[in-house]
Amino acid sequence: MKKTAQQLVAEAEAEIETISVEEAFKLHGDPDVVIVDVRDVRELKREGFIPGAFHAPRGMMEFWIDPDSPYYHDIFSSGKRFVFYCNLGWRSALVVKVMQDMGLPRVCHIDGGFDAWCKAGGPIAQKETKAK
């Protein structure tokens, strides 16, 4: 192995903007900010999510921001600031590095991710389950 996952995260964090949970609290609800949850849908169902967050699974991010991709989501051309998070801040650091490399402006991630958000007392929403 040439690099560990932690080395990749550390390299990404050296080149991206990381914000504190307190800064994220201040941005939450700002109409010029989109908070993006990159966790797996099972994590959202099990643990909840930041209210109002846009869910964009980590495995699809490159395709969702590329306007030439059939999976493109136009929210990423809104010109808004994007604040990404995952559970601990590792996946979101990698996501922000790739988004930055692809040219998406105004991107950052939350230090410590959803775990830090919860520990700091941030609001949490629950995913609604579909009626059978």
Order of helices and strands: HEHEHEHEHEH
Name the CATH superfamily assignment of the domain at 18-76 and 89-119: Rhodanese-like domain
CATH class of the domain at 18-76 and 89-119: Alpha Beta
Shape category: globular
**Structural class, from secondary structure content?**
alpha/beta
| Low-pLDDT residue spans | none
Determine the CATH topology of the domain at 18-76 and 89-119: Oxidized Rhodanese, domain 1
| Gap between N and C termini | 46 Å
Compute the number of strand runs. Answer: 5
User: Number of helical runs?
Assistant: 6
Strand order of the largest sheet: 1-5-4-2-3
CATH architecture verdict of the domain at 18-76 and 89-119 = 3-Layer(aba) Sandwich
Question: Mind telling me the C-alpha Rg?
Answer: 14 Å
Beta content comes to 5-15%
Helicity, in percent? 25-40%
Query: Strand count, sense and closure of the main sheet?
Result: 5 strands, parallel
